[in-house]
Task: inverse folding
């Protein structure tokens, strides 16, 4: 877990680790989908949420009717809540291959000019998505 200096100071607690079951690729079935509820309880900062190598399907936003859409990240304003569906199907990007260990960082960071600016690159590794529940290593995925 990182703080304002963006230097890791604490291990990621177990309750910030998600375990997904990867759908076998030899079966013509749809990957499992997981619903996440994103809530910004901050009083002074808007943040951005993402999971390395995963598309997010944004399905609901408080008080705003939306047509579900896909994006790699979600901007969550102060007091805002979103329902997001994540498929257990990591995708490789041009500059971001899928790590062999099956571990991915869940990232949140303060949006530019939206609250206290701690400095640094802006990324914080605030959770882990694991496809192998026996793994205990930190992810090597990149934002």
Result:
């Amino acid at each position: 877990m990182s703080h304002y200096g963006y230097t890791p100071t604490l291990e990621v607690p177990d309750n910030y680790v998600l375990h997904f079951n990867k759908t076998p690729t030899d079966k013509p079935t749809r990957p499992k989908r997981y619903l996440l509820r994103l809530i910004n309880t901050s009083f002074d900062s808007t943040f951005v949420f993402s999971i390395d190598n995963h598309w997010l399907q944004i399905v609901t936003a408080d008080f705003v009717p939306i047509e579900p859409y896909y994006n790699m990240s979600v901007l969550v304003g102060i007091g805002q809540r979103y329902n997001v569906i994540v498929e257990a199907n990591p995708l490789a990007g041009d500059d971001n291959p899928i790590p062999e260990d099956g571990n991915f960082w869940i990232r949140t960071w303060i949006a530019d000019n939206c609250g206290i600016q701690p400095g640094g690159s802006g990324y914080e590794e605030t959770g882990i998505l694991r496809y192998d529940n026996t793994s205990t290593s930190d992810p090597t995925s990149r934002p």
Observations:
- The chain has no helices and nine strands.
